[in-house]
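Quick one: structure for this chain?
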Amino acid sequence: MQKIDIIGDIHGCFHELQELTALIGYNWDTGIPIHPEGRKLGFVGDLTDRGPQSIQVIKTIYKLIQQDLAYYVPGNHCNKLYRYFLGNKVQVTHGLETTVAEYKALTKKEQQQIRQSFITLYENAPLYRILDEKNLIIAHAGISEELIGKQNSRVKTFVLYGDITGEKHEDGSPVRKDWALDYKGKSFIVYGHTPVKDVRIIGNTYNIDTGAVFGGKLSALRYPELEIVSVPSTMPYVAEKFREFS
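Got it. Here's what it folds into:
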């Protein structure tokens, strides 16, 4: 059985990534985190935006994937950065501006390398990952039971943005259904996307986005042990960014 340490939304918090992986036994001597017992890392997407070191995070995850040392699925911020790098018209807002500022500060040659690395990373990533003979699924915003095994536009919307209803809140953000409450499947689903103060466990679902970029924690779920390990964030705390569930 593959042993995997799945890490929540990093959002450019490279320092926390280093600290968390070191805490669970990964060695950074070669410049990337490698586990002496051959454990792999898993990433639920949203590697960049808002945090201080998005470029460094991209470089690290790209190298890990190239060496088959990690699993990565894209998040909505990854999708937007990908479209930006393709030259599509996207609004450089909601955190993308920090990644773009870092990118623009690079030399032309470095820009080319980062752009190509990220495009390769994104284009080779599945929308969600089915691992350990269907016992484990990694999806950025989660996935409902009936969508597992499918690939279509509904799946893409769900895994990137959550179970959106099409309605909007007063602040313009999309209304999302709490899909985890309805999930009764046997597979463990590990996801992020919605910042919560502590890892939220409902049935076999684990939301491991503990808001590192908003001053919470960066968390990992160790599989198959189902042990949660977190490190505190160095970012300022922004209380309103954390979702409270009734």
